[in-house]
Amino acid sequence: MELAIIIPLLAAAVQSGTPILYATLGEILTEKSGVLNLGVEGAMIVGALTGFIVSRSTGNPALGFLAAGCTGALLTAVHGVVCLWFQGNQVVSGLALTILGTGLANYLGTSYVGLSAPGFSPVELPILSSLPVLGPVFFNHDILVYLSYLIPPALWFFFSTTRFGLGLRAAGEYPAAATAAGLNVIGYRWFGICGGGFFMGLGGAYLSLAYTHMWTTNLTGGRGWIAVALVIFAFWRPGRAVLGAYLFGGIMALQLRLQASGTQLPSSILLMLPYGLTIFVLVLSSWRKKVSEEPGALGVNVEPVD
Amino acid sequence: MRKIRIVKRQEPLGIGGSCLVLLSAIALSLLFSGLLLFFRGTPPLEGILTLFTGAFGSRWALEDSLLKAIPLFLCSLGVAVAFRLQIWNIGAEGQFALGSIGATWVALSFPDWPRAALLPAMIGAAIVAGGGWGFIPAFLRQRLKTNEIIVSLMMNYIAILLLEYLVYGVWKDPTSFGFPMTPSFSETAIVGKIGTTSINWGLAHCVILGVLVWGFFKYTRTGFELKACGDNVRAAKYARLPYDRLVFLVMFLSGALAGWAGFLEASATVNRLQPSIMVGYGYTAIVVAWLARLNPLSIGIASFLLAGLRVGGESLQLDLQVPAAFGGIIEGLILLTVLAGGLFTHYRIVYRRN
């Protein structure tokens, strides 16, 4: 393939990987605190709708983006109530969150289907965008993509150097010891759940505000689940999440391009690609990694004490 | 100062208390749903009433609810079998699709066979296809330690796309004016209706399979081993129970039951294969299984109620223009409130004055 084909494809990979990246980083934050949240898909789609509605009614997409994060956090707070306060099963609660979120978004969004809202458009970054290859691939996007470049290093810094980040990891690794050390495990887990939900909502808003500028039912189309899988692929490391998200963005962009170029392959087979790749990537990451880096207490509730 | 405290119960909550918790959970979720209706300008009381009368208010409604309960029951029974072993099979939707594909393949390939041979062959194909689809996540889990939740879920998307590929392509009816559907099944490939009702004999399949699954857990050695493993995996492994084989078994069984539901949907309900048979029974089945605490009899009751929710949702859509997604909201809410209510089984909440 020539450079003229590859560069636009890579740029498209970064763009369609960005919503998945936001959501994956959100789930990493949640899981590091020891909570498994399978409601990513629900938080994303609720965020996508909120972002769209707020941007449409205020004319300010930035406000929409922020509101999307807040509703994402609000929805995942339900997971917090069920699992942290009421000791509900984390797997089932997450599934319920996805069912609820998808239902809510499709219910409240029916009158917005097919409408458009002001969103984000590409802005060339000065100097950086004139770099060969790197410029067009990484620095010719909308501002939300640039924002997403800053989050993985920030999260890495947060987890490995800050006191709060280390406490959060302790809550996820060994809650009993963390409690004994005087840490408020439930508090850290609340932060993990709602902070994670905030990023998931942002990921959803990227879809409705930058990727399409439109609202349609089932806009997220399984991206939230791919994000859950990518957390495992990334070994719970923010840096590797970037790799995974762009890999998926790439396969989605490639599949769209193949469809547009009118190949002989039927579209249903092409559409299977991202889902098949998810399974493949999971198999690959568990096969390569003998020792799991999963937080020790992931999915285990902390019992209330008298 | 008053303070809320959570205290462990000496004994788990009895059946009366459990029912009370369940009923209040459902009432709470209906309350939330009513609020949502209100915010969208639908009179909430009228909405909830329409939902109920639409689901259970007439003979036609009851029959329709029962009809939709059939696939839901089988999918949920399958999901529950896997959940018993703490294996999270989220793939009933895909296993359902594969079951319908397997049954359709037999129905289209051997239309001239007599009913006594064709229907069992269709069921066999549905079991193999659905069970095989369920076997894959189990195999990857046990051999490569991949997460079965995500694998089984991703396989749902793949299965639905496979179904679409078939009905848009190789199996498409040339006389369907471009609609994505296979030709109609032959008379011998169709599971008939019971008497003058609109309910098909699939209901009898449900009863038999339900009793079989219940008996399997209660009276067989393997069933006992499953229960032991489900209660405590580590202890079971220590007792040298064949955990690996049990995982394969439950996932195959789970997929086979969902596949059977797919067979019934294709054969008895639409008499052909078309994409519209995929309406999310596999996902609702998870709600049903959890509401019923994985007990076959309760699954029967819960699947009838949630099928009613779907039917009632349709009349809510027709009469009051409430979007179909409303049903999903209630489902999610019920699951969340019931899940939260589970706390009261082992704990009680007391107010203490400090």
TrEMBL record, chain A:
GO terms of molecular function: transmembrane transporter activity
InterPro entries documented for this protein: ABC_transp_permease
One Pfam family this sequence matches: BPD_transp_2
Record field: transmembrane: 35-55, 62-88, 94-115, 190-212, 224-248, 268-287
Coiled coil spans: none
PANTHER family, per the entry: ABC TRANSPORTER PERMEASE PROTEIN, SUGAR ABC TRANSPORTER INTEGRAL MEMBRANE PROTEIN-RELATED
Record keywords, A-Z: Cell membrane, Membrane, Transmembrane, Transmembrane helix
Topology versus the membrane: Multi-pass membrane protein
Assigned GO CC terms: plasma membrane
Main location class: membrane
Protein name, per record: ABC transporter permease
UniProtKB/TrEMBL annotation, chain B:
GO MF, any single term: transmembrane transporter activity
A Pfam family: BPD_transp_2
Residues passing through the membrane, by range: 12-39, 45-62, 69-88, 117-140, 149-171, 199-217, 246-263, 275-292, 299-318, 324-344
Protein name, entry field: ABC transporter permease
Keyword field contains Transmembrane helix: yes
PANTHER family: ABC TRANSPORTER, PERMEASE PROTEIN, GUANOSINE ABC TRANSPORTER PERMEASE PROTEIN NUPP
CDD domains, per the entry: TM_PBP1_transp_TpRbsC_like (cd06580)
